[in-house]
User: Fold these one by one.
Assistant:
Number 1:
Amino acid sequence: MPDDLALLHDDIYLLAVNKPAPLLTQAPPAVPSLEARVKAYLKAKHNKPGNVYLGIPHRLDRPVSGVVVFARNTKAAQRIHKQFQEHTTRKVYWAIVEGDITPDSGVWEDWVRKIADEARTVKAAEGEPGAKLAMLEYRVLRRFDGKTLVELEPLTGRMHQLRVQSAWRGHPVLGDTTYGSTVAFGPPADLPRDKVIALHARRLTISHPSTKQPLTLEAPLPAYWEPVIGPTS
């Protein structure tokens, strides 16, 4: 059984884990992934000789840590996937960004476009082919040393939208060199794919696929955040 799996919830319908960065959520069999670790955990826990079913209704970018939920059966997978599709889930992220964000709270709106065949998003104009509206709410939690700890809640589900919407306002996420950060963050890494950024999926609220009751999952911050922002719960 994997001893480094940070479980947040485990029942017969769903399982939630605090994903470490820079682990992929899902990958081909030969590549390490959170999916593979969770399947190994379930096989060991339930002594299953064969394959383990695991539905993956959402993912986090490789350099991002935090809450990821998996479904244990097809019905649960369909119900949770539908919640993500219809934006009835509530996702709350924490980020450390460069500079001082002002005012203390607000809404950011931008038109974005994903670059075909690339893991990158660029600014777009309304009406431009491929352009989609990206919206988020933000709230400043703390300011320190020319940086801001901010809570971000996406109202749309665009690729990299939290990262680009912050960066376009002069506040790139620490360590996010893809979108202009010049400040190093996290453990040293020899390869670009092993670098992490200061973005963490802090809380996820869904409707439980069986009870239909709201379920809020909260993931502790990685230890490497503490030298930057100090102790947090």
Number 2:
Amino acid sequence: MRNELWEQHRGKCIGAAAGVFLGFIYLIWGFWDMLIFAFIVAVGVYIGGKLDRKESILPFEDIWRYLTQKWRMFR
């Protein structure tokens, strides 16, 4: 089962592990650590899921298209 999980969801596993690692590092220093820890883990799982689906992490084309359309009215 563990091998199957690794083969099908490698990006999510790596993202979650990186999130947990960075979250534990952050837990050493502050009060709102639980919320930040959960956010870091969620971001890791999100990025890992994107990598599993072979999608880009940030949709630069969509962002650029949105910004150019948004600022076009000022020209």
Number 3:
Amino acid sequence: MDKGIIAGELSGDILGAGLIQALRARYPNALIEGIGGPKMLAAGFKSHYPLETLSVMGLVEVLRHYPRLKKCRDSLRDHFLQHPPDVFIGIDAPDFNLGLEYALKSAGITTIHYVSPSVWAWRQYRLRKIARACDLMLTLFPFEAAYYQRHQIPVQFVGHPLADDIPLQVDKLAARIHLGLPHQGILVALLPGSRRNEIRQLGSRFLQTARWLLARRSDLRFIMPLAHPHLKTLLTQQIAEIAPDLPLTLLDGQSREAMAAADVVLMASGTATLEAMLLKRPMVVAYRMAELTYWLAKWLVHIPYFSLPNLLAQEALVPEFLQHQVIPEKLGAACLHWLENPDQVALLQKRFTDLHHQLRRSASKEAADAVSKLKSVRNPVSSRNWVSKKL
């Protein structure tokens, strides 16, 4: 039972690796190919392009890279039409994957989309495209599944693999020992993102915030994990220009350990905020984007929150700062609030634990079960006839 899988970024690589491992328990000799990262490759995946090929975010940024992305998608479409998998699974990257899923489904290939696009927040018209493109939507969060059910689109809530991987209680001291950090003292983790654009938008502002905090709390120490080695030059340049004397430890990767070791986390919005929540760490969430992208999103997006902990809870559990609010005074004051109010941190951690239980469902196994149960009702061989007409 061969599978096609395309993951769009690091978070998709994690999901894809878990899914591949669960599928291999059922189909040990299956060919599983498409686009994936190091974790998927380690699970026995064949990648036709590097994972970074699809790591583009923002409306303006995607438009700039559109010709390259279209060429890649057309190539993968032709490959899967000539060598039809039993099931194709697009992991996240909806602007790339949904169009590919539509072409494959039209040719008789069963398609699944894993990780819901934010249709509940903006571009609700995509529901029609989703219904045409995929036979089943797999969601990570329960509120997403409820949304699809209301619109009568086949859906299954599988939970989140991170909630399975991360224990309900995390030992801060053990994390510090693992990283070779001092056992005592207050530690602030800085996570400005995993993309070059995010580092450009948030790296310098996070470093300025660290300086602001240190001027008020000389006992603070800082830690910053590098999501990719190729980001080191950009970050070290920012450190040299903005905070050369900052008591800062740079790490190659190990973002989870860095968050686990910290007393508070200042971070970019994204999947990492879910990880911080599961680690039960108080956080301050920020995001900036290209100015044109921001103004377009401001008119198109209508949700009260943008960080995952707040979206899951449907209330403001953690402070969020967007675009022009991302300044040291606001970010720093929010970090100090957590450091100086341990009772509120304890209440926050209790809420985080409740949400952790809600998402802890053996997600990779649930997703693999859904893939196995979804049998194609169309003849995949017809895709060969379809592609012969198109080429």
